[in-house]
Design brief:
globular; about 240 residues; GMP Synthetase, Chain A, domain 3; three-stranded mixed sheet; 4 helices; single chain; alpha+beta
Length: about 240
């Protein structure tokens, strides 16, 4: 990938990204040679991620004469018109429990999928931010049980943002089969309960595992919505 021309910073690139229609927030990661390694975008749901990625490619060419690899662009979307989100239609959140004992915390998340109950658990340090990560990990554990070993799911990243005056959770997940690995992203408004917001964002990230959709476990069907990778959107 070409290097950024001298004098152009990641902040300038992010400024161009934020001018693109439907883009809410953006982050560009450069390596030590100033080459683009990652582009993370949080966008509204007005257009498809593929359209947004194409606009990013066009904008960088127009402003910087800089071609980019679309596989390095991640897009997580928020549905503004949906208001405070409920759980995905294919799953019912039965319970979310977080317990702290000294310096350790444990979390359990119960999901009802196709009429069957799956409970995921996670344990770790009781640091406030890590508790939310445990919620995401426990959610993925419950989904993995539903998938019966077809796909391994791992939390890549969790970020809490303020979009306007509304808090948002952004989660990225690695879905792995023997044939390939794919990164998925999900975002959700937080309806007051931060743990529930993280569960909802995590479920949105793995929606393609839902019944009747292209299953994560279908090794030929693991593909993201943008045509590129959906990486860790640690957006500013």
């Amino acid at each position: 990938m070409p290097d950024i021309k001298k004098g152009v910073s990641a902040a300038e690139l992010e400024g161009i990204l934020r001018q693109i229609r439907d883009v809410i927030s953006a982050r560009v990661v450069l390596d030590e040679t100033s080459a683009i390694q990652e582009i993370h975008v949080l966008a509204g749901a007005g257009r498809s991620p593929k359209q947004i990625v194409r606009d990013i490619e066009s904008a960088f060419m127009a402003h910087f004469n800089l071609p980019i690899d679309h596989k390095k662009v991640s897009v997580a979307q928020l549905d503004w018109e949906a208001g405070l989100p409920g759980a995905a239609a294919w799953v019912r959140v039965v319970d979310v429990n977080v317990k702290v004992s000294g310096a350790r915390a444990s979390c359990s998340v119960g999901l009802e999928i196709e009429g069957e109950l799956f409970t995921g658990e996670a344990q770790g340090a009781a640091a406030t931010q890590n508790r939310l990560r445990l919620v995401a990990v426990a959610t993925l554990s419950a989904v993995e049980q539903y998938l019966k070993g077809e796909v391994a799911l791992a939390l890549e990243g969790l970020r809490l943002l303020d979009v306007g005056e509304r808090p948002v959770a952004v989660v990225t997940v690695a879905a792995v089969t023997p044939a390939r690995e794919e990164s998925l992203a999900g975002a959700s408004f937080i309806p007051g309960d931060m743990a529930m917001g993280v569960v909802q964002a995590t479920l949105k990230a793995v929606e393609k595992c839902l019944p009747g959709a292209n299953r994560c476990g279908d090794r030929s069907a693991i593909r993201d919505r943008s045509g590129g990778q959906v990486g860790n959107p640690e957006l500013r």
